[in-house]
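Dear colleague,

As promised, here are the two records you asked about, laid out in our usual form so they can be pasted straight into your sheet.

NAME FIELD: protein one
SEQUENCE, THEN STRUCTURE:
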Amino acid sequence: MRCPFCAHQETSVLESRVAEDGQSLRRRRECQKCQKRFTTFERVEGPTVFVIKRDGGRVPFDREKIVTGVIKSFDKRPVSIDLIRQLADEVEREVRRREVSEIPSKTIGKMVLRRLRNIDRVAWLRFASVYFELSDITEFEKLFEKIGN
């Protein structure tokens, strides 16, 4: 493991434990050259799942794209990054449980929306406005009415 501070390749593992999600391993490391400490995470990587984009293109599934999108929807909202990562972990587990090699991006979006609605309705509305590709105010008003139910 390369040190993120000095790029030295020799590090020592000081502590290892199962991370909160139960799906990854958290390791505390120390660089043998600069003595700085840092944390790494290991997770099991299953078979590659490809996401079918709206334009028909295919890209490998990347949970960090979910994290990035959800962070944008929570801009200036009172929510922790840990909750966002937990949401992304849940979506990733649901995708992998389906045991498919391809999944439409629309399906992943629905998984995210289902979880967001229970966490923060403003974030849900922001994410949904991008997901549904709203183009005018009347579409936005219809979506706003939908969340009120």
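NAME FIELD: protein two
SEQUENCE, THEN STRUCTURE:
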Amino acid sequence: MDNEFVKTKLIDSFVFGIFIWLIGYIASMILFPFVPNNLLGWILCIIFTPITYLIAYLRFKNRKQPMKCYIGVAVFWTVIAITFDYLFIVQLFNVSNYYKSDVFVYYAITFLIPIIIGLSKRNKTNK
């Protein structure tokens, strides 16, 4: 296996997965004192869905990869989000009621964005 390929996959999966999670986490810490708890997750979804899509699009725009690569990135990003949310929100702040519909929508969006980009690139190359 090509070292450059492995390095690219690690950056795509881990570095960008952690980066995307971290910018949302920092934004939530900044907004927390000013936004009601029941709206914070929805506001973050509205703000960061297009940002996450743009980051992923720019990262993958000039590459031809098999669909399994996009699925792998989707899995890693979602696992990172779930794990880091649990460690750095649920455990760190002792939040027992964290998992609500906004969090599950966030996980679904995190999973779907790389797959949607992969499918759109696949459809463009098939035309």
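A couple of things worth noting about protein two: Helices lie at 3-31, 37-60, 67-91, 101-126. Residues 3-31 form the longest helix (29 residues).

Best,
R.
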